[in-house]
C-alpha cells in the first residue's frame, strides 16, 4: 500500500488533524478516517469487515452469561473451547468469514474454474484482520483485556499502517503503549523507522530485485529448464538466496514503516523481525521472523494442540501447516507449511536428543557456523516451494528444488 500516493496523503493529513484535535476526540477521528480510507479502496469488503467487527464487539458488550456454543464438543474442539470460553461463537463466525473469502475460491477453482465462487477475491488485509479479531474475541472471552472504549477497539483493528501487512498487534499491548502527547522523541523515532524502511524497500530491495531479474530473465520456468550442470545449480541457488533476502527486506521494510507511522500517532507497535537470517536453528529463525504471527500461532493453535495431542511434534507440524494456509489457500503454501513444520519438529527432536546425549558438535564456533549454514540451506531451499505462486504449480516448485540439489 505504501506505493500509493493516496496512502501518504492520507497519512500526512490524518496525522496533522489527529494532533490538532482535542485529545477526547482523537481516537474517534482516527477510527473514522481509517475506515473511510479503506472504504475507498474496497467498499464492499470494508463494509463486511466493519459489520463483523461490530458483531464481535457487541457480543461481549451484552450479557456476560452468553452461552459458549462451542463448549460441548469432544476432543480438540473441547480443548479449544475450554480455552476460548464464551468467545466460541464469535471465533466460529470469524473463521467462517476467513474461510469463505480466502479458501473457498481456490478449493472450488480446482474442479470448476468458472464458478462465481472461484472468482471471489480475498479482501485486502483479511488474514491480519481475522487473526487480530480472533485474538480479541478469545482474550475478551477470558476476561483478560482491560476496560476499553469502542473507538480504541476500532483504531486498533483498522489502523491503516498495520492493516495490510501487520504486525499482528496484541490489543492489550496496543492499549498500554499509547502516548497521548506528541514529543520530539516520538517524531524522531517514528521518522527514523519510516526512512529506514523506505531505504530497505526502495533502494536495497529494488537493487537486489534487479539482479534477480538479470539472473532469471522474464520467465522463471524457462530459467529452471535451462539450468544444467554445476553452473545451473549455482544460478538457482543465487536466485533462491537473493529471493529470500528480498523477501526479508520487503517484509521488514513494511513493518518498519508501519511501526514508524504508528509511532507518529502515539502508538508503540510490537516488532516483527529481529535479524532472522543470522540464526543457528529453525526454531530460533521463527522466533525472529514474522514474530507477531509466530506468537499468535503459538498461543492460539500450538498450545491447544499440544494440550489435546500430548505430542509437541505433531502439534508443531499442524501449526505450521496452518501458517502456510494462512498465507494462501494453495498446494504450494500447504507444502511450504509442512516443510517448515517438519523442519521445526526435527529441530526440536534434535535439541532434546543432543541434550540427553550431551552432544556439543554445534556448540563450538565452527559448529555454530555449520548450524547457521544448515538452517539457511533449509529455509532457502524451502522458499522454492512458493517461488511460482500464484501462477505456477507445485510440480513447478518441486522441479526447481530438485534442480537446486542437482537431481533435476
TrEMBL record:
Name this polypeptide is given: Probable alginate O-acetylase AlgI
Gene Ontology annotations of biological process type: alginic acid biosynthetic process
Domain of life: Bacteria
A cellular component annotation (GO) from this entry: plasma membrane
Location of the protein in the cell: Cell membrane
Homology family: Belongs to the membrane-bound acyltransferase family.
Species for this entry: Alsobacter metallidurans
Its membrane topology: Multi-pass membrane protein
Keywords: Acyltransferase, Alginate biosynthesis, Cell membrane, Membrane, Transferase, Transmembrane, Transmembrane helix
